[in-house]
Amino acid sequence: MTVLALTDNETAWAITLVVGLVVALVVWGLLEALRRTVNEVERSVSAVWTMGKRVAQNTQTTHLLGTTKQRGIELHEELQQHLPEGSRQ
Question: What is the pTM of this model?
Answer without folding.
Answer: 0.56
